[in-house]
Specification:
Rossmann fold, 8-stranded mixed sheet, 10-stranded mixed sheet, Spore Coat Polysaccharide Biosynthesis Protein SpsA, Chain A
Length: about 450
C-alpha cells in the first residue's frame, strides 16, 4: 500500500510490475514525473535508470552514464547502480548540456540483463510548455513499455493559444481546432489528451496507459477537475491529477470505464475503542440477535462500498469473526493512545487509489444506508474536503475525508480525531448534507443507552 509518510504517493497509484519500463510523454511535467517516480522507487529499495529517446537536460544531482556502445554502457550502469539507486543514461552530451536519446531498444535490453529494476524513459520534448502539438515523428516510444504516462499541465487551460504556452502551435491548432491567441478551452485540452492516449495505445498495445494532469494547484475550481475527468471517462483505467513538486503529489484519481466509474470512496470503521463508560466490550453486545458492530457494518454493505477496512483493538480482536470476509481487518495495537491511531491505521490500509474515506463508528448501529449513498454522491459532484451529515442542525457521523486531507490525518495525535482538522477548514470546504435519519447522532456508550436502544429495537 502507501508509505505512512506519503499517503498520496505516486507509485501506489500506478499498476507497476515488479520490474518494468515506464514511458513518459507529453508536456507540463514529464521531468517531474520521472524524478518523483525514481525517488519513490529508490526509497523502496529499487534500482532505477532515467533516460530518454529524444533529449533531456543533464541533471546536476545524479550520476550519469553516457555512451553509444551498449556493452560498455551496460557495464558502467551496473557499476554506478552498485553505489547509488538512480542513474541517468544518455547517448551523447550535447553543447547545450542536454543528453541525446538512446536507441529505443535499449530499455528492454537493459531490463533483460537485470541491471536495474526500472527504466523510466522520456519520449518527447515540449520546450517547457504545458501543452503541445505533435510532429509526425514523435513521441519516440521505446520498443517495449509496461506503463505509458501521457502528461499535460492543467495551467494551459484559459491561457492564450500562443507559442508562449503551446509547443508546436500549428500542429496543436490543426488537431484541436483551437484558434491562435484565443483562450485554450477544456475541449481543446481533452482533444489533445485523447490523441496522446491513442498514440500510446497504437504504439504499445499491451501497456497500461495512465493519463496524468499536473499542476492542479494552479486552479481553484474543482469543476474543471470534474469536467476533465468526465471527458476522459471512456479511458480504460485511472486518470491522475497531481502536484508533482509536492511530497504528496496525487490529489485526485478518477477511475474510468467500469460500473460506478468516478471518484471512488473507501470506508473505514473505527472499532478499537476501550468501552470505558460501558464497563464491558460494547461492540459485542447484541441488539435483535446481532452485535452492535454487525449493525454498524450492515449499511456499508448495502451502500455498495467496495473497499472497506475495519480497525479493531487487541482487546476486541475476537470480533474479527463478525466482519464480512471481503472486508480487511486491521488490529490497532496502539489504540490506548487515542482515536488518532485508528484513523492513521485506516488511512494506511485503504486502497491508495480512492478519492476519499468515509470514517464510520463501530458503536453507531442505526445509520441508514441512504446516508452513505448521499454522502458519496455529494462528494463526487462537488469534491469538498469534508462531507458530513447534519440532523436537526447537528453534525453527525459518518464523515467523508477527501484524500487531500489524508496527510493531515497522518499527523494528528491523541484522542481528538478529525475534529481538529475540520475546525481549521473554511465553510466552503465542508459539504453538509441534511438527513432525516437520527441514527447519524446516536452512538452507544453507556449501559443505560444500551438498554434504552435495545428496548426500542426489540419492542
Amino acid at each position: 500500500m502507501m508509505s505512512p509518510s506519503q499517503p498520496l504517493a505516486l507509485t501506489p497509484c500506478l499498476p507497476l510490475p515488479d520490474r518494468g519500463i515506464v514511458t513518459v510523454y507529453g508536456a507540463g511535467g514529464k521531468t517531474s514525473v520521472m524524478e518523483s517516480l525514481a525517488r519513490e522507487l529508490a526509497g523502496n529499495g529499487k534500482k532505477v535508470i532515467q533516460t530518454t529517446t529524444t533529449k533531456i537536460f543533464l541533471p546536476e544531482d545524479l550520476p550519469a552514464v553516457i555512451g553509444e556502445d551498449f556493452k560498455t554502457v551496460a557495464e558502467n550502469l551496473e557499476s554506478e547502480l552498485s553505489r547509488q539507486p538512480v542513474v541517468v543514461l544518455g547517448a551523447t552530451l550535447l553543447p547545450d548540456n542536454k543528453l541525446s536519446g538512446i536507441n529505443p531498444a535499449w530499455p528492454d535490453a537493459l531490463l533483460k540483463k537485470r541491471i536495474a529494476d526500472y527504466v523510466i524513459v522520456e519520449a518527447d520534448g515540449s520546450a517547457h510548455k504545458p501543452i503541445k502539438g505533435y510532429a509526425p515523428y514523435e513521441p519516440v516510444f521505446p520498443t517495449r513499455s509496461d506503463i505509458l504516462i501521457p502528461v499535460l499541465g492543467i495551467e494551459a487551460i484559459g491561457k492564450p493559444v500562443t507559442p508562449d504556452h503551446v509547443h508546436r502551435l500549428d500542429a496543436f491548432c490543426r488537431l484541436t481546432g483551437a484558434r491562435p491567441d484565443a483562450p485554450l478551452e477544456v475541449s481543446h485540452f481533452l482533444i489533445s489528451f485523447r490523441y496522446m492516449i491513442d498514440l500510446g495505445r497504437q504504439s504499445t498495445p499491451g501497456a497500461a496507459v495512465v493519463p496524468l494532469i499536473n499542476k492542479i494547484d494552479t486552479i481553484s475550481d474543482c469543476r474543471v477537475i470534474r469536467e476533465i475527468a468526465e471527458g476522459l471517462k471512456d479511458h480504460h483505467g485511472d486518470v491522475l491529477f497531481t502536484v508533482l513538486k509536492d511530497e504528496n503529489p496525487v490529489r485526485f484519481i478518477y477511475q474510468g470505464v467500469k460500473e460506478g466509474a468516478g471518484f471512488d470512496i473507501s470506508a473505514v470503521i473505527l472499532a478499537a475503542g476501550e468501552s470505558a463508560r460501558m464497563g464491558r466490550p460494547k461492540l459485542a453486545l447484541k441488539i435483535r440477535g446481532k452485535t452492535i458492530l454487525e449493525h454498524a457494518l450492515a449499511p456499508i454493505e448495502e451502500a455498495g462500498i467496495r473497499d472497506v477496512v475495519v480497525v479493531l483493538s487487541e482487546e476486541n480482536e475476537n470480533l474479527k469473526a463478525r466482519v464480512p470476509g471481503e472486508y480487511r481487518v486491521v488490529i490497532n495495537r496502539h489504540s490506548k493512545e487515542g482515536i488518532s491511531t485508528s484513523l492513521k491505521a485506516g488511512v494506511s490500509a485503504v486502497d491508495p487509489r480512492s478519492q476519499g474515506i468515509l470514517f464510520a463508528l463501530g458503536d453507531q448501529p442505526f445509520v441508514d444506508p441512504g446516508v452513505y449513498k448521499e454522502l458519496i454522491q455529494y462528494h463526487r459532484r462537488n469534491l469538498p474536503l469534508i462531507t458530513c451529515p447534519v440532523y436537526e442542525g447537528k453534525r453527525g457521523n459518518p464523515v467523508l475525508f477527501d484524500r487531500r486531507l489524508w496527510p493531515a490525518l497522518m499527523k494528528i495525535e491523541g484522542d481528538e480525531g478529525g475534529k481538529q482538522i475540520m475546525a481549521e477548514l473554511a465553510p466552503k470546504d465542508i459539504g453538509q448534507i441534511k438527513v432525516d435519519a437520527a441514527g447519524v447522532l446516536i452512538d452507544i456508550d453507556t449501559p443505560e443507552e444500551y438498554e434504552m436502544y435495545r428496548g426500542k429495537e426489540e419492542s
